[in-house]
Structure formats: structure tokens, C-alpha cells
Design brief:
The chain is α/β, with parallel strands linked by helices. It is 48% helix and 18% strand. The chain has two domains: 165 residues, D-Maltodextrin-Binding Protein, domain 2; 117 residues, Periplasmic binding protein-like II (D-Maltodextrin-Binding Protein, domain 2, 3-Layer(aba) Sandwich), CATH 3.40.190.10. Strands 1, 2, 3, 4, 7, 8, 9 and 10 form an eight-stranded mixed β-sheet that branches. The protein is globular.
Length: 343
């Protein structure tokens, strides 16, 4: 009986040893395959090996989303991989930006941002990201020009006449915006400072109701995205005084720049560009930068952007965009603080 008991224990021991060896082999094999796959997927020289998610922090069909889709299509062709638009709207774009800030820094989740999200929002609200610490600027791809328009009832034709009227009737003129801290609000605050005037601010919940009241004469002035009011300029319901870019817009070449009216250097644009989570490999950043710079030079891209009122950016490096973002944050934070603007 003792011999049989020892034999049974020995057999059980052998079976346990074999099970242990099998489990160990499977574990080592799995670890090897995972390590191999990780190494392959993180081989920057082979980037991209799967679809790239381009996060747009706004709803679909807006100007930022429109440009993102134009760029995504061209990038897909260039990279030979799908570039998938992922709309994550909310909190003025901060929700989508925060999502990307905490995404893996592997080049497969990128942010397509407007100026307001990365250079204005951090000074207006508590956001879950730090633009300069959490993102690597990749490339600026284009911008939306704004246009200074007035209700024809003011019976003025130039920026100079608007400034004279505002000085002659302090506190009587007002401007509409799509909300506190919005691009249309901040642009007019900057205009006021440049012209040394004070036009009262009337905030609306969006551009549509603000433009409606401008057409009705309930507000007299707006500095807003060109394409938003272009139909009303063309049919004479609004009068265009100037564009916010440093050079005339090809869409309305007859409208002078605001800077040319004696406000030297005045420029406001809702620029857009690509950003990646911090620590994204530099080789990936350079690859996207070079590809986007090539794409925005193509005549087909320029034509598509022009129909949307978007000016393609000139070639720019990640370092140049970083420096530009730093200057934009400094500029807008000063305006926000001195004007006591709150969202």
C-alpha cells in the first residue's frame, strides 16, 4: 500500500510538473508575441501601421470639422492608412482636447484644434490640459478670416467713420458676439483697444441669433467669420468695412484690411492646426508636418479650402507653431484679464 501511495503521488507530481511547464511555455510565448507586436507597432520607421484617429473637438459640419475632413482625406491618401475623424464636442472644445492630452503618445490619436481651444480656453476656464505641457504642436494648416460688418442704418462706409462715430457717441454703439470669450467677442475687444474706443458688448448664445439681431438693427457691429455673413454682405443687408487678415481676402478682394485703416499690425484669425500628445516621437511629428505642408500647397486643396472661406497656411515647422502658440496664449490672456472677460 505504501508503494502504491508513493507511485500515485509521483504520478501526480509528474502531471503537475507537465502542467506547470505547459503554462510557463504558453506564458513565455504570449509575452514574446506581445513584445514582438509592440515592437512592430512602435517602429516609427513603419508609421503608420493602422488607422489614425483625428479628434475634432467640435460637432460635425462646422468650419473646423470641414477643414479637418479635407485634410484627413488627403492624409489618408498620402499615408496609405485611414485617417478617421472623431468628433468630441463640448466645453468650447476642451473635452476633445483633454481626451487627446491623455491619449497614448504613439501618433495614432491626434488633435485638430482651432485657436480658441488651445490659446484662449485655458485663460477663460479650468481645463483638463496645459497646452504647452501636454501637447506637441505639429503644423498650422489654415485660418478663417473674420470680417467687420455693420448694419446699413449706421450710414457709414469706412472703419475710420466707425471709429469717429464711436468716439462721438460713447456708449451708444454695441456689437454682438456668439458668447462671452468667443472669437467674435475677443476680436472686437482687440479692435476697441486698437482704435481706442468702447463699443458695448452684447453676448448671444451662438452666432446665428447674434447675426439675426445685427440684421434687425438691434446691434450695430460684428467682427465675425467671413463665410458666416458673406451672403448678407453680397445682398446688401450688411455693409463690410474690413477684414481681419493682414492681406485682403481673395473671397472679398474689394474689402480693405482693418490694419490698413491706421490700425497697424491688427490681425485676428481663427487658425487651425494639428497637435499630438506630449512625448510623441519626433519622427512622427516631422512626418505629419511635412505631409500636411505638402498637402496645403496643392491646388486641389487650395480650391477646396477657398470654397469654405479658409486660407491655407504657409509652410511652417513644429518649432514655429510652438512659438506662435506661445505668443497667442500671451496675447489673449492679456486681453481676457484686462477686459475682465469670463465665460
Amino acid at each position: 500500500m505504501l508503494a502504491n501511495d508513493c507511485s500515485n503521488r509521483f504520478s501526480l507530481g509528474i502531471k503537475s510538473l507537465r502542467s506547470f511547464i505547459r503554462i510557463t511555455f504558453v506564458a513565455i510565448s504570449t509575452l514574446f508575441l506581445c513584445t514582438l507586436a509592440w515592437g512592430q507597432s512602435n517602429d516609427v520607421s513603419k508609421y503608420p501601421q493602422r488607422a489614425i484617429h483625428l479628434v475634432v473637438p467640435f460637432t460635425a459640419s462646422g468650419p473646423v470639422d470641414t477643414m479637418a475632413r479635407i485634410m484627413a482625406q488627403k492624409l489618408s491618401e498620402t499615408l496609405n492608412q485611414a485617417v478617421i475623424i472623431e468628433n468630441r464636442a463640448g466645453a468650447g472644445g476642451s473635452i476633445g482636447a483633454e481626451f487627446v492630452a491623455h491619449a497614448p503618445a504613439d501618433g495614432y490619436t491626434l488633435l485638430f484644434s482651432s485657436a480658441g481651444v488651445v490659446s484662449v480656453n485655458p485663460s477663460l476656464n479650468k481645463v483638463g490640459f496645459d497646452t504647452l505641457k501636454d501637447f506637441v504642436p505639429i503644423v498650422k494648416s489654415g485660418s478663417l478670416t473674420s470680417i467687420l460688418v455693420v448694419n446699413p442704418s449706421l450710414k457709414i462706409n469706412t472703419i475710420g467713420e466707425l471709429i469717429q462715430l464711436a468716439k462721438a457717441k460713447p456708449g451708444e454703439l454695441n456689437f454682438g458676439s456668439s458668447g462671452p470669450g468667443s472669437a467674435s467677442h475677443l476680436a472686437m475687444e482687440m479692435f476697441d483697444r486698437a482704435a481706442d474706443i468702447k463699443i458695448l458688448h452684447i453676448a448671444y448664445k451662438g452666432a446665428a441669433p447674434a447675426v439675426t439681431d445685427l440684421l434687425a438693427g438691434n446691434v450695430q457691429v460684428m467682427l465675425i467669420g467671413l463665410t458666416t455673413v458673406l451672403p448678407f454682405v453680397n445682398n446688401g443687408k450688411l455693409k463690410a468695412l474690413g477684414v481681419s487678415s493682414l492681406t485682403p481676402s481673395p473671397i472679398v478682394p474689394q474689402v480693405p484690411t482693418i490694419a490698413s485703416a491706421g490700425l497697424n499690425g491688427f490681425e485676428v484669425s481663427n487658425w487651425m492646426g494639428f497637435f499630438a500628445p506630449i512625448n510623441t516621437p519626433n519622427a512622427i511629428v516631422v512626418r505629419i508636418n511635412e505631409d500636411v505642408n505638402r498637402i496645403i500647397k496643392q491646388n486641389e486643396t487650395k480650391s477646396k479650402l477657398a470654397t469654405e472661406g479658409i486660407d491655407p497656411a504657409s509652410a511652417n515647422t513644429p518649432a514655429q507653431l510652438k512659438e506662435y502658440v506661445q505668443s497667442e496664449i500671451s496675447r489673449w490672456s492679456k486681453i481676457i484679464k484686462e477686459s475682465n472677460i469670463k465665460d
